[in-house]
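Quick entry between incubations.
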Amino acid sequence: MLNAGEAISRFVRAHREFVIGIALALACAGFYLFQPSDRDLFMTIGNWRVIAVNISTDALMVIGMTMVIIAGGFDLSVGSTLALGGIVTCKLMVLGLPIPGAIVAGLAAGAAVGAVNGFIVTKIGVNPLITTLGTMIIVRGICLVAVQANPVTGLPRAFGGIGEGFRIVGHFEIPYSVLIMVVAVILADLLLRHSRFLRQTYYVGGNEEAARLSGISVDWVRSFTYIITGALAAAAGIINSARLISASANAGERAELRVISAVVIGGASLAGGEGTILGAFLGLLLVGVIENGMEILRVNIYMKNVMLGLILILAVTIDRINVEMLRRLIRWFKQ
Amino acid sequence: MSKALNVILAALVILLAYFHYSRAPSSHTTEPAAAKATGKEEYVLVAVSVGNAYWIDARDGSQDAARDLGVEVQFTGPQGSDVKQQVDSIETAIARGVKGIIVVPAEPEALVPSINRAIEAGIPVITQDTDSPNSRRYTFIGTGNYEAGLIGGKLLADQIGGQGEVALLTIPGQWNLEERCRGYKDALAKCPGVKVVSIGNDRAEESQAAAEAKSILQSHPELAGFGCVDAAGGAGAAVAVRDLGKKGKVKIIAMDRNDATLDFIKEGFIQASLAQRSYTMAYLGVQMLHALNHNQIKMVKDWRAANTCPLPSTVDTGTVVITPENVRFFYHGEPGR
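Done. Structure below.
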């Protein structure tokens, strides 16, 4: 029994994606079996399309956040940067800039926020939590000042087409936002596993001093993760705006909490050095499926937060299961 | 490794069995199961800032209508005012195939595509509280936010005798509140003796509102009144006025009818509160959607085929002014509720 316990805890830690996959399958089976209507509402193409679109913008931020957290950082400013990306792009389009130019400018604005975060964290040495808490408030403020709480509207029709559009793959209409998400997640996951530069994030997060001594440019690697995250958050904001055909200073409210939860559920350690993008994405998918499923089960809206918080804690607790706990559990059962 | 897998699989089977059997017996009593048995029609009310006490009335209204009509209404929406999450809720509702949607747009323009998509899917949509006039929604039920602000501004000007400095408490960036502020300012601009000296952020929370009101009172000792455009402002301003001993010197016009606000009206700290008929809005909204689905309003034989809608294009539910004289009727949790 003891050996089995050890094996389980080792397996859980080494195959986080597999474990979340099981949790996902369980959640889906549960929602499918217990849905209140005779007609299947959960396992339909329409519903899964909704789930995919709902998580598509958060997924981009999850990619960046995973890298930041692996490199030992933290970024609270993603939600505000999302709003900034949307506002910069939309404002410039309204002023007459062509769509591609406006999108590039929006991405640049997001990357700039990331660069500021990176600079303050690495060169000045302020704690990432405090730094990004500050930029989160500042950037949200800048957004409000820029638009005076008035959503930016009157965007070119073609821009809205990006949010509404889809591509036919096989028999399915895949919305652009979902297509972007899938490509970005696969690409980023492969890069983080195989690219030499991005692999350095693990060393930096795992043991900063050792990484420094082995010649890794620690400050640059860490700054890079913030810059990528800023740009991806801005991209999320631009897609968001295309979907809504407007940009608002309130966009991305509480996004940071959803994104960080997903990354942690996906197996990243806030101590740094651990985590994968695939795991984080599955974590986000799990949260998205559970939110959707609770809607279908008509769970009271105020109850939803309780459930989502419980899932987060449960996911982290799984990591903590060790042999001693299992032994105690067995003893408790024997009594 | 295979041992470990076996253990995990066994655990899964036990878990599944547990969930299956623990849920099964109770399925006769839970609400969803009841719906399954009766096949009730389902409607959804997509609100905004769902944690706000403001929604008590709208929820009551929708639930009472649901009971009277024998349908089900689900209350949902984002915690904050992120309109993207409202769009998500509407898309989920469309995928679920609900019979009708009432939505309180956090921003009028951003909801146009998803409202239109619901209409195209044959699901009637009504806007409540805030309109989305460029969408294809069938009707808007509510108080014009701007008009509510105008009434509030007029009340405040009357209370302070058309003379003095006033401050507004709001949440900057929330569209409907900005509209109310605009109404307040326009009404107050008609009195040359009144000056808006400060606009405070109450962050939708009474303690924050109190802190903000106190600092405004410190920097403007001559302040004659507060105009509050959201539910948290009134009670917050009243706490500040009470703590600084300025009862009666500083007049307060509040918004909405949560019990804290009502208490302060009874005690004379708040001179009046503008309540919206949010109960009525939600009640009528559900009724109208139901009437559409069952073709009960026979303006034409088949309104869908005629490509027209028998509902009025807008319904103005107006405002109720709550004063010390009538405050006792507005408490929640009265018998019969």
